[in-house]
Specification:
There is one protein chain. The protein is mainly alpha-helical. It is 81% helix and 0% strand. It contains 19 helices and no strands. Helix 4 packs antiparallel against helix 5 and helix 16 packs antiparallel against helix 17. The relative contact order is 0.06.
Length: 371
C-alpha cells in the first residue's frame, strides 16, 4: 500500500506559471504518457498474473473510469491474492474519491471477509479496514467505523508502519470529534502531527481537527490560530480549502461573528459543489441555516435547512441529518410551529437511536484501551 501511495502521488499534476519552455505539468504529462506506453507494450506480451500485475500499474496512471475497467479485469482474471487485494483496494479508493460511496462500500464489504485469513494480503487488508471505516463515518455508522479502525490499527502496529499509524490517528481523532469526545480527538491529532512532522496531509488535518476540537472545548481564539495554520497548508488545493473555510466559519459562528461566518460557509459551499463533495455541501448548508437562525431570520434558516436535508439524504450522511433535525427543532420552537416541531422530533429520535447505539459505546471502550 505504501508503494501504491508513492506511485499515485507521482500522477498528481501541479500547474506552474506559463513560460517559453514546457511547464512542469506538461513535462510530467509527457513522462506519464511515456510510462503508460511502455507498460502497455510490456502488458501486450504478458500473460496470467504477470499481465494482471501490469494492468494494476497501468490503472494507477489512468482517469477513474478507465482505471475501474482495468481493475475489474484484474479481479476477474487474476489468481494471485496480493494482486487481487491491490486491485480491489484501489478500485474502492477510486470509487470513494469519486463520491460513489455505496459502490465502494459494497466492494469492500464483500472483499474484506475473503482476505481476513490471507497473510500475504495483509498489507492491503489494513487499508481496506480503514477505507471501510471512513465510509462508515460518512454514513454516520460510528460503531462500525470504530471496529474497523481497531482492526486496521492492529495490523499496522504488527507491521510497525509509522506512516499509516499517523494517518490512522488523524482519522480516529476525527471520529472521536464526531462523537463529542473532543479531548481524545485533540490528543490523537497532536500525536499524529508529532509523529509525522513532514507529512503535509497529516499536518493540515492535524491543525484543522485540533482547531475544531479547541472550538468545541471553548478555546475559540486558539482555535482560530490553529485554523490559520491549516489555511497556510492548503497550497491552493480546493479539496483542502473547502474544509479550512468551513472550519473558520464554524469558529466564527461560535464567536458570534455571524456575517463573517456566513461568507466562509458560502465560499466553502461553492468549492464543495465544484468538487462534488455532497457531504460537505450538506454541512455548509446546515451551518448557513444556523447562521441565519442566530440572527432570528427563521424563514431563511428553514428554507436553507430543507435544502440541506435533501442533500444529506441524497448522500446518506446520517450524522449531518441528525444535526439538521436538531436544528429544525430549534427553528420550530422559535416560530411556534407545532406541526413542524412534531415532524423534526420524530425524525431526530429515530435517527439518533440508529446512529448512537450501545455498540458504539463498546467500540469506543475497546479502542480507548488500545490507544
Amino acid at each position: 500500500m505504501t508503494r501504491w501511495l508513492i506511485i499515485f502521488s507521482l500522477s498528481q499534476i501541479f500547474f506552474c506559471a506559463h513560460s517559453q519552455v514546457a511547464s512542469k505539468s506538461e513535462v510530467q504529462s509527457i513522462q506519464i504518457q511515456r510510462k503508460l506506453d511502455s507498460l502497455r507494450a510490456v502488458a501486450r506480451e504478458a500473460h496470467g498474473n504477470r499481465k494482471a500485475h501490469l494492468l494494476n500499474e497501468i490503472a494507477l496512471l489512468l482517469p477513474t473510469e478507465e482505471a475501474l475497467v482495468l481493475y475489474d479485469r484484474v479481479i476477474n482474471e487474476s489468481t494471485d491474492s496480493v494482486i487481487l487485494a491491490r486491485a480491489i483496494y484501489n478500485k474502492a479508493g477510486r470509487l470513494s474519491n469519486s463520491m460513489r460511496k455505496h459502490e465502494a462500500e459494497e466492494v469492500l464489504a464483500s472483499a474484506i471477509p475473503a482476505f481476513e485469513h490471507c497473510r500475504e494480503a495483509e498489507e492491503y487488508l489494513d487499508g481496506m479496514y480503514s477505507a471501510y471505516a471512513r465510509i462508515k463515518i460518512f454514513k454516520g455508522e460510528y460503531s462500525s467505523a470504530f471496529e474497523n479502525f481497531y482492526k486496521s490499527v492492529n495490523l499496522v502496529r504488527k507491521r510497525r508502519d509509522s506512516v499509516m499509524l499517523g494517518h490512522l490517528m488523524i482519522d480516529i481523532g476525527m471520529l472521536h470529534y464526531k462523537v463529542r469526545n473532543n479531548t481524545k480527538a485533540l490528543e490523537l491529532s497532536q500525536a499524529a502531527m508529532k509523529l509525522l512532522t513532514e507529512d503535509a496531509s497529516v499536518q493540515f488535518n492535524g491543525y484543522l481537527n485540533s482547531g475544531l476540537c479547541l472550538a468545541e472545548l471553548g478555546f475559540l481564539e486558539l482555535a482560530l490560530q490553529y485554523c490559520d495554520s491549516a489555511f497556510s497548508r492548503t497550497n491552493g488545493r480546493d479539496k483542502y480549502l473547502l474544509h479550512a473555510e468551513f472550519a473558520r466559519g464554524f469558529i466564527l459562528l461560535k464567536l458570534g461573528r455571524t456575517s463573517e461566518a456566513r461568507r466562509f460557509f458560502s465560499s466553502s459551499l461553492n468549492l464543495c459543489r465544484r468538487e462534488n463533495d455532497g457531504r460537505m455541501e450538506a454541512d455548509n448548508l446546515l451551518y448557513l441555516a444556523k447562521s441565519w437562525l442566530a440572527e432570528s431570520h427563521v424563514d431563511s434558516a428553514l428554507r436553507i435547512l430543507r435544502e440541506a436535508e435533501l442533500v444529506a439524504k441524497e448522500n446518506d450522511t446520517k450524522e449531518i441529518l441528525i444535526d439538521i433535525y436538531r436544528t429544525g427543532i430549534s427553528i420550530s420552537n422559535q416560530n411556534s410551529n407545532q406541526e413542524e416541531l412534531a415532524e423534526f422530533q420524530k425524525k431526530y429520535i429515530a435517527l439518533k437511536q440508529y446512529v448512537y447505539t450501545i455498540g458504539l459505546e463498546r467500540s469506543l471502550a475497546s479502542l480507548e484501551g488500545d490507544w
